[in-house]
């Protein structure tokens, strides 16, 4: 049984290490020494969680009550805890200061079980019970252990790396060679439960990828579309007969039905079932298959009657974001009606359909899902004629849609989970409007505003993701396009992510240092018109290349549906600049 102290010690060490290789090496070494459930538990804990991403893993202790648990554990008053907190700024550090325990007794399994227990207590009096359970384990914890237990409880472990490093470490620890990392990353697109993945790898080594398959209740990563620069390119990339589907600007959704249990997951794999009771009801009422997994898009939508004709109204993505809430769901269900458009089927009655071709999947989809009420199938055409394709695109735009997604019907047109694939190509209206491009960038800093913007930010320092290095590299400063309401929302979002120094996964040049540093968490969509070489920025710098910068950037919207690792990559930017 490995002690929790070893894990806490490693957390502390990892916080100081900046080298990618070194972090992976340390992680691998640690996993090699684990057995049984420890593997699974540790995989979650390294990501600061106590379960897979698609499960709600918040422990549900109100922040201010954690002070009470700490006071109870160390026998001091809440007032004193608050004072120490005001000085240290981190309750984990307060626990570290207060713990007098020298001998470590807790095991990883014990701590993990206790944290799960805290999460699971619910109902009347549950807050008291949660505090009691936390207080009790803190009493048994050494200073270091206490510090990290508190950080996990708050969901703020922040070791400065994400799941990709863990996957690389699994390759070394469980297959004995880093060369299997690619396969393991692919498996993770299908088995998105990092704990289950780790455990299976620990049991089966390099042969483990053969054990992963889609299953209801566990979302797979979404297949994404590549963008093309011209209509001609569309024709070149997918020759001959192809399908063109309407592209809706809403929220990606994966619906899983297993008997009576129906769940909806977002593109970030969050469980969003509670946000869309109307979609869940529609699926329950109209789909008779016992187990089924569907892929589609939820859009803010209404059908209106005008002069005796039925017209479809598609509303902007921003409208839909009103549905992103835990409370008053019913009220907003009325205020912001939605429709769901399914375009793919990934699983049916015990059988994975991921390896079937697009045409096979579409036929199965049509057999099993009939449009009714707010549930639809995406409208599409199958054609090899360019004019027909262009007409279909123009009609879509006329209807207020974003554009189309053209899909390959070739014999290898499988569902490529987790991939931005050349089997799906998107073509949007804005692409045809000259050189304006949009980018999803991660905010890592802000500069104080002046004049009218005093008290708020003047500009945001934005980065793109360097996928190989897993670093966020600066690309532009965005200072225009914000309404007052945008600025207010952004300020409140950023306030929970400010940090005192540049996070180690962010690369910034001296001349670009912001007034406030922000850890990579918030993604915004930015419109820009030109990519230039710039020695001041770090995006794509290295190997004889200077950094890249975006000129004339303008804020469009906050991308709540994207995490920092879904941001535009420096590779995509370089390709765009070089016109690939
Ligand atoms: N018929 C469709 N087929 C596939 N995806 C569709 C379709 N209609 C809408 N979509 C949405 O479009 C997205 C495809 O664009 P992309 O893969 O680039 O994601 P994105 O960058 O979020 O797109 P965007 O920037 O256009 O919002 C899908 O993730 C899906 O949510």
Automatic annotation (TrEMBL):
GO terms for MF: ATP binding; DNA binding; DNA ligase (ATP) activity; metal ion binding
Pfam families to which the protein is assigned, alphabetical: DNA_ligase_A_C (PF04679), DNA_ligase_A_M (PF01068), DNA_ligase_A_N (PF04675)
Keywords on record: ATP-binding, Cell cycle, Cell division, DNA damage, DNA recombination, DNA repair, DNA replication, Ligase, Magnesium, Metal-binding, Nucleotide-binding
Annotated GO biological process: cell division; DNA biosynthetic process; DNA recombination; DNA repair; lagging strand elongation
Residues binding ATP: 245, 252, 267, 297, 343, 420, 426
Tagged with keyword Coiled coil: no
Record's function text: DNA ligase that seals nicks in double-stranded DNA during DNA replication, DNA recombination and DNA repair.
Protein's UniProt name: DNA ligase
Source species of the chain: Methanosarcina siciliae T4/M
């Amino acid at each position: 049984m490995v002690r929790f102290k070893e894990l806490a010690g490693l957390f502390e060490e990892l916080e100081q290490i900046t080298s990618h290789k070194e972090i992976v090496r340390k992680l691998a070494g640690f996993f090699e020494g684990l057995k049984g459930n420890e593997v699974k538990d540790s995989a979650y804990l390294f990501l600061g969680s106590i379960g897979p991403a698609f499960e709600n893993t918040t422990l549900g202790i109100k922040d201010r009550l954690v002070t009470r648990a700490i006071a109870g554990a160390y026998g001091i008053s809440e007032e004193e805890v608050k004072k120490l907190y005001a000085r240290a700024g981190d309750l984990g550090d307060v626990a570290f200061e207060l713990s007098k325990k020298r001998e470590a007794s807790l095991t990883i399994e014990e701590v993990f079980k206790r944290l799960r227990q805290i999460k699971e207590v619910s109902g009347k009096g549950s807050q008291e019970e949660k505090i009691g359970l936390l207080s009790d384990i803190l009493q048994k914890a050494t200073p270091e252990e206490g510090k990290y237990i508190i950080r996990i409880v708050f969901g703020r472990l922040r070791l400065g790396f994400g799941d990709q490093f863990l996957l690389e470490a699994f390759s070394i620890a469980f297959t004995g060679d880093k060369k299997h990392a690619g396969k393991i990353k692919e498996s993770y697109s299908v088995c998105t439960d990092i704990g289950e993945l780790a455990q299976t790898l620990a049991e089966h080594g390099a042969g483990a990828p053969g054990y992963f398959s889609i299953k209801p209740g566990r979302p797979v990563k979404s297949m994404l579309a590549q963008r093309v620069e011209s209509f001609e390119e569309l024709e070149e990339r997918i020759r001959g007969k192809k399908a063109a589907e309407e592209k809706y600007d809403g929220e990606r959704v994966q619906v899983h039905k297993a008997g009576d249990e129906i769940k909806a997951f977002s593109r970030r794999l969050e469980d969003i079932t509670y946000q869309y009771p109307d979609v869940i009801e529609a699926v329950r009422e109209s789909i008779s298959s016992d187990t089924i997994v569907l892929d589609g898009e939820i859009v803010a939508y209404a059908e209106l009657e005008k002069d005796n004709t039925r017209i479809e109204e598609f509303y902007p993505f921003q409208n839909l974001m009103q549905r992103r809430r835990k409370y008053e769901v019913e009220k907003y269900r009325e205020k912001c009606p939605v429709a769901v458009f399914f375009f793919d089927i990934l699983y049916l009655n015990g059988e994975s359909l991921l390896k079937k071709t697009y045409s096979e999947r579409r036929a199965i989809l049509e057999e099993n899902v009939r449009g009714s009420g707010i549930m639809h199938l995406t409208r599409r055409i199958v054609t090899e004629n360019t004019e027909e394709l262009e007409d279909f695109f123009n009609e879509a735009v006329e209807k207020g849609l974003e554009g189309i997604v053209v899909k390959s019907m070739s014999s290898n047109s499988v569902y490529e989970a987790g991939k931005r694939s050349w089997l799906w190509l998107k073509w949007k209206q804005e692409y045809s409007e000259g050189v304006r491009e949009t980018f999803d960038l991660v905010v890592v800093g802000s500069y104080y505003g002046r004049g009218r913007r005093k008290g708020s930010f003047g500009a945001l320092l934005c980065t793109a993701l360097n996928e190989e290095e897993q670093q966020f590299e600066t690309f532009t400063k965005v200072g225009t396009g914000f309404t007052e309401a945008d600025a207010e929302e952004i300020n409140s979002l950023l306030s929970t992510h400010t940090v005192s120094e540049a996070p180690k996964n962010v690369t910034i040049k001296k001349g670009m240092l912001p007034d406030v540093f922000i850890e990579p968490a918030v993604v915004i969509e930015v419109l820009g018109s030109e990519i230039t070489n710039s020695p001041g920025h770090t995006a794509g710098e290295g190997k004889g290349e200077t950094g890249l910068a975006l000129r004339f950037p303008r804020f469009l919207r906050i991308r709540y549906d994207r995490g920092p690792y879904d941001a535009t990559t420096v590779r995509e930017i370089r390709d765009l600049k070089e016109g690939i």
